[in-house]
Amino acid sequence: MIPGVQADFSADNGWTFLVKAVLILVFLLVSVLIAIWFERKVVGRMQVRPGPNVHGPFGLLQSLADAMKLLLKEDMNVTAADRIVYLLAPMISVFCSLLVFAVVPFGPEVRLPFTDWSTPAQLTDFPVAVLYVLACASVGVYGIVLGGWSSGSTYPLLGSVRSTAQVISYELAMGLSLVSVFILAGSMSTSTIVEQQTSRWFFLPLLPAFVVYVISMIGETNRLPFDLPEAEGELVSGYMTEYSSMKFAWFFLAEYINMLNVSAVAVTLFLGGWRAPWPLSAINDGMLNTGWWPVLWFLAKVWLLMFVFVWVRGTLLRLRYDQFMVFGWKVLIPVALGWVVLLSIVQYTRIGAGIDQGTLVTVLVIVGVVLVALITFWPEKAKPEEPAGPETFDAFADGYPVPPLPGQVLPPSPRRRPVTVDATSATSDDSREETR
C-alpha cells in the first residue's frame, strides 16, 4: 500500500503492469479512431449532412481508411530541415500524450473473470499523480515547438511560436483550477481524489474552477476556437505544414489522445471519476459502483466531454490571436487565482470554526454567483471619442506593407487615373436641366 494513495497495488507484479499498459495503449488507439468518426458524424449532423456513411456500417471504417491512407502515402522529407529533430518532434508529442493515462483510474478494484485474482483498474498511482499529468502536458509541447523550428520554413515556425505562448498561458489557468481540487481533497493522488467525491462531485462546490478548466483544456489541445498554432487560413497548417505521411499522422494522433487525456482528468478531478451519477449510485447500496460497472460510467463521462469538444468546434469561430491571449491572461488566470485565494480563506475558516461541508458548499456557490454577476455586469470604461474623419494610414511606414485597421483609410493611389468630365456633355446636361 503506497502512503497517501487509496488504491492498493501490492498484489500486482511486473506482468500485471505490462498487461495493463498494453490495454491502455490499445484503448487509446481504438478511441482515436472512434473519436475521428464521432467528430465527423456529429459535425455532419450539426451542418445538416450525413457525415461518413460509405465505408462500413454507419461509416465506422472511415477512420481506418484514413489511417491506411496516411500509412501508404509517400513520405517526404524537407531538404532544409534539421533531420534528427525533424523526425524526433512527432515522437515526443505522441510519447508524452501516451503517458497521462498511467495514473487515471478507470474504476475501483476489479476481479478478473473466471479467476479469484483482483487488481485496481488503474496502471499506477502516487501522491503527486496530478503534477505528473501536468508535467507530461508541459513536455509534450516540445514536440510542437521543435517540429515547427526544425522544418526550416516560416509558417511552421510561426505556428510553433504561437503554440509556445498558448500553452504557457492556458497551462497556468489550468494549473490554478486544479489547485482548488488539491485544497478541497487534501491530496494529489487521483485515486484518493475520486474517493473524496463519494458524497458529492467536486464540480458542484468548485464550479468556477471547473469552468476555467473546461475552457483551458480546449486551449491546451489546440482545438477550435483556440486552434491558433495550426490556423489553416493563416498558416497553411501551422507547425505540421512540412510533415507528411506517418509523421503527420503522429501529430494528428497526439492531438486526439490529448483530447482524451484532458477529458479523463476532468472526469477524475471534477465529475466523480468512475462513480455512477445520482440517483443510480443509490441503487442497492451502490451496487453500480462495484465490479466492472464503474468502467462504463467513466467512459460515458469521457465521451460526454469529447462531445463538448465537437460541439464547440461546430458552433464557435476562431478567435484572433490578440483576443485569445487577452482572454487567457486577463480573464482566465485572474478568475482562477482569485478563486484559489477565496477557497483557501473559506477552507481555513471552515477547519478553524468547525463549519460543516454543506454550509461550505452553500457559501462557495453564493460567492461564485456574485463574482460571475460582477464580472458580467461591471460597467465598461468609457471609450474616447473617435475623430470625425477616417485617419489616413501609410501602409509602408515601417518598410513592410500591412493592411489598415478599422477607422483607417489608405491614401489615394498615384497610379489611379483622374476622372475627367467632358465639357460639351456637361453643358448639354445643364441646358437640359434649365429647360425642365
Automatic annotation (TrEMBL):
Residues 401-413 have a biased composition (Pro residues). The chain crosses the membrane at residues 17-38, 84-106, 126-149, 170-189, 201-219, 248-271, 291-312, 324-346, 358-378. GO terms for molecular function: NADH dehydrogenase activity; oxidoreductase activity, acting on NAD(P)H, quinone or similar compound as acceptor; quinone binding. It is a multi-pass membrane protein. It holds the Pfam family NADHdh. Keywords: Cell membrane, Membrane, NAD, Oxidoreductase, Quinone, Translocase, Transmembrane, Transmembrane helix, Ubiquinone. It is an enzyme of class 7 (translocase). Residues 385-436 are annotated as: Disordered. It catalyses: a quinone + NADH + 5 H(+)(in) = a quinol + NAD(+) + 4 H(+)(out). The keyword Cell membrane applies. Its EC number is 7.1.1.-. GO terms for biological process: aerobic respiration. Its main location: membrane. One of its GO terms (cellular component) is plasma membrane. It is found in: Cell membrane; Membrane. NDH-1 is composed of 14 different subunits. Subunits NuoA, H, J, K, L, M, N constitute the membrane sector of the complex. NDH-1 shuttles electrons from NADH, via FMN and iron-sulfur (Fe-S) centers, to quinones in the respiratory chain. The immediate electron acceptor for the enzyme in this species is believed to be ubiquinone. Couples the redox reaction to proton translocation (for every two electrons transferred, four hydrogen ions are translocated across the cytoplasmic membrane), and thus conserves the redox energy in a proton gradient. This subunit may bind ubiquinone. HAMAP family: NDH1_NuoH. Belongs to the complex I subunit 1 family. This is NADH-quinone oxidoreductase subunit H.
